[in-house]
Amino acid sequence: MPLSPAVEVNGLVKRYGANVAVDGLDLVAAAGQVTAVLGPNGAGKTSTVEICEGLRHRDGGQVRVLGLDPVRDAAVLRPQVGVMLQDGGLPNTQRAADVLQHVSRMYADPADTAELSERLGLRSFARTTVRRLSGGERQRLALAVALVGRPRLVFLDEPSAGLDPQARRAVWDLVGELSQDGVSVVLTTHFMAEAEALADQVVIVDHGRAIASGTVAELVASGGTTTLRVEAAQPVDAAALAAALGGRFTVDPAGRTACTVSGPVDPQLVAVLTRWLADAGVQLIRLELGRRTLEDVFLDLTGRSLR
């Protein structure tokens, strides 16, 4: 018999006054897998996750976490769910080691704090107060606090934000081990490489709705598997080039002259592009053919304009 989803959200609605932050969102996070929730700032992903964590009340829809209601059944869920908030939610005046030890005492069968400290490199700042920790050190402590209770399900909000490459790799390895041990993980991230490295499933959220979901391979293949990236010395007339290439063209934001063509790319398309640039008097700096990435999919679905 297949396992029930770790998280199941149907038609979720959340309003803040007149603003609808979550607008009928559907999301499923499978048990024992890593589910990455991606979206631009203001897309509704943080509100959705906070509702699943029981930190906010929903205005409509259904939410089940480990088969239970996150508000009504909070007392039952709390020992089974680990939460890593982006701001940490840690007491500023306490030392890092004391915080971890204090939280561990709240659980009947906590993880070995010494081992967890070693894995996440906490020993070097164990006696430092939370207030004096760097952003990356706070992140590592917040992750340790989320995991010390041996949860069945973990919510991680931007787990590698502010981490150096070594710490990021240690966090990724630990998340991978959690999944191998059958722990369900739901993470939000703006770091596409993180989602590509860790996620079994990806859900892309925008304007309060889930607009795409699937494995990284499925999402990348959905719009063709190759991209053609061009960098020019002068600004490109986006509308004219899009017309010449049949609409398969986007210009990066902030006035950059780079452009991208997504989908199958053949020699004829390359010839049309280079001829158009030459006729327009645009000097070509670089032309690069490569594989489509999760970031390409994300930008195609959510747009390239700053918000």
Task: Walk me through what this model shows.
The chain is an alpha/beta fold and 307 residues long. It has 2 domains: 7-216, Rossmann fold, CATH 3.40.50.300; 224-291, Alpha-Beta Plaits, CATH 3.30.70. The protein has 11 helices and 13 strands. It has helices spanning 45-52, 74-77, 96-104, 113-119, 135-147, 165-180, 192-198, 216-221, 238-244, 267-279, 294-302; strands at 7-16, 19-29, 34-38, 60-65, 81-84, 153-157, 184-188, 201-206, 209-214, 226-232, 250-251, 259-262, 284-291. The mean pLDDT is 89.
Helices and strands in order, then pairings?
Elements: E1 7-16, E2 19-29, E3 34-38, H1 45-52, E4 60-65, H2 74-77, E5 81-84, H3 96-104, H4 113-119, H5 135-147, E6 153-157, H6 165-180, E7 184-188, H7 192-198, E8 201-206, E9 209-214, H8 216-221, E10 226-232, H9 238-244, E11 250-251, E12 259-262, H10 267-279, E13 284-291, H11 294-302
Parallel strand pairs: 3-7, 3-8, 5-6, 6-7
Antiparallel strand pairs: 1-2, 1-4, 8-9, 10-12, 10-13, 11-12
Order of helices and strands: EEEHEHEHHHEHEHEEHEHEEHEH
The strands making up the biggest β-sheet line up spatially as: 5-6-7-3-8-9
Output the radius of gyration. 22 Å
Proportion in β-strands: 25-35%
Q: Kindly report the average pLDDT value.
A: 89
Q: How much helix, percentage-wise, in residues?
A: 25-40%
Q: How would a textbook summarize the main sheet?
A: 6 strands, mixed
Poorly predicted regions:
none
How far apart lie the N and C ends? 44 Å
